């Protein structure tokens, strides 16, 4: 789920050029790392790891497109051709199963698997395995929090940090205070993240028996799917819906939340530092920033803890690498606890290892560190299936626009559509 700008990508390309500028004349192996765009943190981390290895290898950083689906497409095209120029990739967790099932990833042996998973939070661990083998190393993780305006909650007499705070209560509160709720409801992966979090929080799942491949069973047409549809459609048709909700992504949600109409928002932790920067740039006032608070992702049912969204990046070694030892050394270095801390502070992306959140500098930079850590640990991953792209696209198509979502019609339609796609009876 990238939110980075073209200028950030340009900085990374410059850094990549610096890392590989000397060429290969010395015979030193060059490890090529395909990364998702960030603020340059992965390029700086690559440079540190290469230096820590005593110059035994260089790292050439190649930047993938901003969009997660485009990242997948570019990698699949190369790996299907057994392109040995890819050694390491920063892989969006939902694509791990697909890549592993296709034979694109080099599994880690047991000794490395133990080291690479020690102290890693439960949420990202769920996304790193395929058929009981560790095929990707959790690098950084992510989750969404509930962000709210203290003044709105105080005026309504509600406590969004309460263990029983639900989506229904939030929608009623926002509508009663003439405020809006920022969500991600455009037809893109962010919408799938929201829908999946609602369904898993209600005790359901979008698809089951995933190892059956195309014969996996859609399970979105369930009580949990109906509860999710009632929330999505209910919000979209309520006074608490922000303008143009069905074209809203992370940044649009943030803009709505920081406006005078803002009351609540679900979004990733980056919004906290983005709000700080907005104060410095004059985009919002210090008073608005001081009014922002946070809590765990809301519950669907008051008696059942939510399963917050899970994001992040796993590091996967290509099955076609010609530098396996050097690439493995880079993975060990990049995912170490010290570098988890350093990367979180540098790039602003939450760590996958739980101990990183105890670091004093992390706690100073992220006052909500404990909520982030617990949310990542308890998060519900998106479906772990080799056909994730088909599953996600099927949901996005049938649940959009949000104003048309109803229960049980939408989950029923979604299950039938998904089944047809998996069976090859319908094209996306």
Overall geometry: globular
- Low-confidence runs of at least 5 consecutive residues: 1-25
How much helix is in the residues?
A: 40-55%
**Mind telling me which CATH architecture of the largest domain this is?**
3-Layer(aba) Sandwich
Instruction: Determine the strand fraction and express it as a percent band.
Output: 5-15%
| Span between termini | 21 Å
Strand adjacency order, main sheet: 2-1-3-13-6
Quickly name the level 1 CATH class of the largest domain: Alpha Beta
| Largest sheet properties | 5 strands, mixed
Question: What oligomeric state do the depicted chains represent?
Answer: single chain
- The secondary structure category is alpha/beta
Overall domain count: 2
Structural descriptors:
alpha/beta, D-Maltodextrin-Binding Protein, domain 2, 2 domains, five-stranded mixed sheet, four-stranded mixed sheet, 19 helices, globular, disordered N terminus
Topology diagram in text:
Blueprint: H1 6-20, E1 30-35, H2 41-52, E2 58-63, H3 68-80, E3 88-91, H4 96-101, H5 110-117, H6 122-125, E4 129-130, E5 133-134, E6 137-143, E7 145-149, H7 150-156, H8 167-176, E8 180-182, H9 189-201, E9 207-208, E10 217-218, H10 223-236, H11 250-258, E11 262-267, H12 270-281, H13 286-290, E12 292-295, E13 310-317, H14 324-334, H15 337-347, H16 360-365, H17 369-378, H18 388-398, H19 409-422
Helix pairs in contact: 1-2, 2-14, 9-10, 9-18, 18-19
Structure overview:
The chain has 428 residues and is an alpha/beta fold. The protein is 45% helix and 13% strand. The protein has helices at 6-20, 41-52, 68-80, 96-101, 110-117, 122-125, 150-156, 167-176, 189-201, 223-236, 250-258, 270-281, 286-290, 324-334, 337-347, 360-365, 369-378, 388-398, 409-422, and strands spanning 30-35, 58-63, 88-91, 129-130, 133-134, 137-143, 145-149, 180-182, 207-208, 217-218, 262-267, 292-295, 310-317. A hairpin with a 2-residue loop joins strand 4 (129-130) and strand 5.
